[in-house]
Amino acid sequence: MNSMTGFGAGSAPLKGSTLRVEISGVNRKQTEIAIAMPRAWSELETRVRDLVAGQVSRGRINVSITLQAGSDTPAGLTLHQDKLAMLKTRLAEAESALGRSIDTSLDSLIRLGVITEETEADITPDEVWAAAEPAVQQALQAFLLLRAQEGANLRRDLLSRIAALHIFRENIIERAAGVALRHKELLLKRLEESGLPLPADDERIIKEIALFADKCDVSEETTRLASHLEQFANICDKQEAVGRTLDFMCQEIFRELNTTGSKANDAGLAQIVVAAKTELEKIREQVQNVE
């Protein structure tokens, strides 16, 4: 079992500088991979995405790739004349249409790729990939290790809560066993208070109690509940991604508890069901963190 949250970093030398890769993950129902890297290296995005996608199956994964200049690397900028000329033409057209001048900041020129750092622009994609691939793998392994460690903690917590639901189930069975008898005693008491006393072995009393007992019987629900809880625990022991399966099992467990509560006809039994639902909600919240 793995968590969807984690962090990992890796680095590799690249022409006197350091290429740094950082990978982090947060919860998502589906797989989303967001990659932030210099525009000059954008053609490598697909390769990075494929590496990450091969190791994760759920969650939003953020990948950041930066080049950190070394102390002995001179800082410099490259001006792309062709892009600047095109930008100048388009700005003139826009100013003419708007009837006013448009200010262009250095930040916007960098974002548009008109100005780039020399250390990024002068390195070929193959050179970048030779450093980026091992750095991504290093970051990915650290990321996966942290997810596995967090997943182990989630597994322990989930199993402890499933054990608590087993106890709630036993309490439900114990309480449900006396519901029909308590109803019989209450019915006889009300008849007596109304001046209509009947013996306990009266056919009408027996028929009423039999119908009531059948209506509030929760044996099927508790049997299915035991099966669902057992399946949940078994799924937690699997090595593959189990988040979606556990989420489905939570729905099935809730269904049995909800049906039990609707058939309860007993305040004590209803309170046990509410407590069990509260514990289940905590499980569902944790499952949202599972890959």
Structural class: alpha+beta
Spatial strand sequence of the major β-sheet: 1-2-4-3
| Silhouette | elongated
Instruction: Work out the helix count.
Output: 10
Mean pLDDT: 84
Total number of domains: 3
**C-alpha end-to-end distance:** 7 Å
Strand content: 5-15%
Helix content: 55-70%
* Low-pLDDT sequence parts: none
Query: What integer value in Å does the Rg equal?
Result: 33 Å
Q: What's the helix-strand series?
A: EEEHEEHHEHHHHHHH
Number of strands: 6
The profile of the biggest β sheet is: 4 strands, mixed
What does it look like?
The structure is a single chain. This protein is of the alpha+beta class. It has three domains: 6-74 and 119-147, Ribosomal Protein S5, domain 2 (2-Layer Sandwich), CATH 3.30.230; 79-117, no CATH class; 151-287, no CATH class. Helix content is 61%, strand content 14%. It is built from ten helices and six strands; from the N terminus they run E-E-E-H-E-E-H-H-E-H-H-H-H-H-H-H. The strands form two sheets. A four-stranded mixed β-sheet has the order 1-2-4-3. A two-stranded antiparallel sheet has the order 5-6. Strand 1 (6-14) and strand 2 form a beta hairpin. Helix 5 (125-176) packs antiparallel against helix 10 (267-287) and helix 8 packs antiparallel against helix 9. The longest helix is centred in the middle third of the chain and has 52 residues, at 125-176.
Compact description:
The protein has 291 residues and is an alpha+beta fold.
